[in-house]
Every structure is written in C-alpha cells, then in structure tokens.
Amino acid sequence: MIREQLPDALKSALKEKDQRAVSTFRLIMAALKDRDIAARSKGNADGIGDDEILQMLQTMVKQRRESITMYEKGGRLELAEQEAEEIKIIQRFLPEQLDAAATEAAVEKTIADLGATGLKDMGGVMGALRDNYAGQMDFGRASGIVKARLGG
After folding, report:
1. Could you tell me the pTM of the whole model?
2. What class, spelled out in words, does domain 2-91 have in CATH?
C-alpha cells in the first residue's frame, strides 16, 4: 500500500541527504493529508484509498509536466529540470504506465465491454477506465481516443 511506503521512502531520502526527494515526499504526504481530511469530512474515516492516491500522484505528475512546458517557454531550464526530477521521484509510486498501443487496446476493450455506441456513453467509458486503470494510464490521451472511437 502506497500510504505505508511514503514514510519509509522519506526516511531513506533523509538518510541519503537527497533534498529533492525529501521535499517531493513531503509534498506528496501533505497532499495526501489534505485529501484524507476532505474524505473524513465526507464520512470516510480511513481517508482515501490506493486508487485515489494513484490519481493524486498522476495529477501531480501532470502538473509538473505542464510546469516544465511553461518553464521551457520562459527560458527557465533549471526549474524545468527540477520539475523533471520530481516527476521521476513521484513515478516511483506509480505502476508501469501503459504505452499508446496498450491504452488504445484498453479503450477498445472497455468500449466493447460496455457496449458504448456514442458520445453520450463517454462518461461511462472514462469512469470504467479510471476504475480499471488507475495510475496506469494518461487519461487525457485516453479521453481523446474514446472521443474519436465514439464519433466525436
């Protein structure tokens, strides 16, 4: 479970004096704590589950990729490099990402399994993909594929 791996990873980063990893793990743990507090207010005393943690980590990676693009456009390559290092650290906790072909295959299978026929079914397909492939798929890319397959 990811929740138990984070403190151990933080301890080893502290021992290795890896400041980038320490700060990244602290950011992850702070975001996790925020999500847990929000979940408790909705009646979930245990906080968020692994699927939601994976989605949170994917969001963090996506945010850093967007930052890299902005930093590169602004000529701030050292900041872009820092963001890239953080992505590598965050990805330690994510399962192996599906490549483009595997993503397309997963989309095709999900559409077939659900019997989706048009854009009105897109929400159901995306929900099923999120349930079955949390942390393994770029849902931005998958959304484009689903839209194309369902006639968008």
Report:
1. 0.73
2. mainly alpha
